[in-house]
Amino acid sequence: MSSNNPHTTASPPQAGGSLSFFEKYLTIWVFLCILGGIVLGRLFPGVAVALDAMSVYQVSIPIAICLFFMMYPIMVKIDFTQAVNVIKAPKPVILTLVVNWLIKPFTMVAFAQFFLGWLFHHFLTGTEVIRGSEVTLANSYIAGTILLGIAPCTAMVLMWGYLSYSNQGHTLVMVAVNSLTMLFLYAPLGRWLLAANDLIVPWQTIVLSVLIYVGLPLAAGMYSRYWILKYKGKAWFERRFLKYLSPVAIAALLITLVLLFAFKGDLIVNNPLHIVLIAVPLFIQTNFIFLIGYVAALKLNLSYEDAAPAALIGASNHFEVAIATAVMLFGLNSGAALATVVGVLIEVPVMLMLVELCKRTAMWFPREPEKATLHDPRCFSPFNSNI
Q1: Quick check: is 81 in a domain?
Q2: Centroid of chain to Cα 93
Q3: Residue 66 placed within a domain
Q4: 172-195 tens-digit pLDDT
Q5: How far is it, in rounded angstroms, from Cα 338 to Cα 138?
Q6: pLDDT 10s digits, 17-45
Q7: How far apart are CA 116 and CA 127, in angstroms?
Q8: In the chain, how many domains are there?
């Protein structure tokens, strides 16, 4: 029986709203930028090498600049008083810590060993020399996936939280927690899982990447938000400043992808079959960890705005640190370095898919849309059939 009730919706509500053409097809733009980066690196290898060489302790300055412009528009939208409120309700933070450090590293080892060490072993029969020792390609690839699995994401998760209309205060707290725990746990966990007593952890890389990728845009966002709200007012901030700033974050994400694959695209072009084989456990791992976090958040009765970042943070990796560590430990052209680059290739499209899944299943959870702090007219409304 049909209903004439104007509040009846044809489909369950989701987070977000009617997206622009650019946002609606973001996954397509991501693939085009990955392809464009690879082509750019092949056509102008000298330019790519020169830009890639602009680094400090393996932290790329061009990438850092792009990530700043990706992070700043997100940071400036955050109501930082909510970060304090997150401490009063720690369940989402505890859930993410458990997933990141007690589950994720070990499932990554299990999936990598099963697929790369056993199921695909006959396709990975080559060897390579690392530090004077000959190792199988399969073991080198497994080492790279482990470096990804033990590096919880920091900067990029702010983008996933932003796109999923989730609690940016919670995401910001988790960025700080992940940064600190990685400094203390990355080395011993990596040494244990890689069974390498001489594992060298690039402390400078981790510290500098956290400061540049997170600290700098955080400081700039906090100060500029305070200054604008004080001298220009909230109406000008939301209607004028954010209107012109909003496209900057996604544009910077796409430029970052172009640069990353211009720098490392040769590793992908030269190993097409191995790319597919490495991608299989990484794809399964990302979705499996997301599922664990999302279902656990549902059982804990978390609001959607807390559940989405809790699951997305666990699923994503700090691939900048993983790549830098693999290059430092095993060399630029090693199988381990290739596996971490495949991590980037897999993560961005898959995370966009999971963000869309979050928005479409938001009705499964209690809603607290005020936590999203996006100041966006597309935020959740229970009576809007377009969302």
Answers
A1: yes
A2: 17
A3: yes
A4: 777 777 777 777 777 778 778 876
A5: 12
A6: 445 556 666 778 878 888 898 888 888 88
A7: 14
A8: 1
Where residue 26 sits, what CATH number does that domain have? Answer: 1.20.1530.20
**Structural domain harbouring 367:** 22-372
Long-range own/partner contacts, residues 47-50 (CB < 8 A, 24 or more apart): 47/262, 48/262, 48/263, 48/265
Distance CA 215, CA 208 (A): 9
Copy the structure tokens of residue 145.
């996936």
Which pTM does this prediction carry?
A: 0.74
DSSP 165-233: T--HHHHHHHHHHHHHHHHHHHHHHHHHHHT-TT----HHHHHHHHIIIIIHHHHHHHHHHHHHHHHT-
Q: Where are the beta strands (DSSP E) in the chain?
A: 55-56, 59-60, 127-130, 133-136
Q: Is residue 11 part of a domain?
A: no
Q: How many helices (H) and strands (E) does the chain have?
A: 18, 4
Beta strand 59-60 with 127-130 is unpaired
> 16 lies in a domain?
no
Instruction: Give the number of other CB atoms < 10 A from CB of residue 9.
Output: 14
